TrEMBL record:
Naturally occurring in which organism (per UniProt): Methylobacterium goesingense
Superkingdom of the organism of origin: Bacteria
Designated name of the protein: Transglutaminase-like cysteine proteinase
One Pfam match: Peptidase_C93
Amino acid sequence: MRHAILRSGDGLAPGWGRRVLWRRIGRAVQFSLVGSILLLGGATTEAQTVAALPDAPRVDAGPPARPVAAWTALCARMPAECAVDTSEPAIITLTPRIRDLLARVNRRVNARIKPITDLAHWGVVDRWDYPDDGFGDCEDYQLLKRRMLVERGLPRRALRMTVVIDDIGEGHAVLMVRTDRGDLILDNKTNAVLSAPATGYTFIKREGQDGLAWVTLNAGASPVATANR
């Protein structure tokens, strides 16, 4: 049977092979056009999604500032935590994927770590460390978030530990993510990723991006410690 079908077309109408060939070509062109439309549609959707991301104002940096003493002690214990690699980008491109990553890491750490003061935890007023035992205060949350984000491919240089005066007038630490859409804040007091003005905080200083010295933000006065939970 197969041999008879594959021969020169015995019993088939003249031109049958050409009609089949043209039908196949037509279907291939159709599929190609559909694929192109879907591809362009996906690119357009991505562009629209990126455009829909809100812009956040940048927090102006001023003269060098001294870090809090607990940061200096952390650097003595963990020098790599304080090192600045100037070959890394200081600003990251904000995409929907990265925006989602920031939100997920912020929520996960906030839910995972139990708040405790440094005095109750370590017996000192202010200590910066990783909350590897499941307990910590504000700066410990942010250090863990930064480590997780770096492990997921974000440049450490664009993730800056930052000191603020919070809504109750106390020293507090947050993580500032520097992006091409502005500076975003990760905070253990909220699962929302916010712009700096939306936090209601007074921004005092943050890690520098070109060396170990910190930089003043908005010409703010510096708190002595960040021992706020």
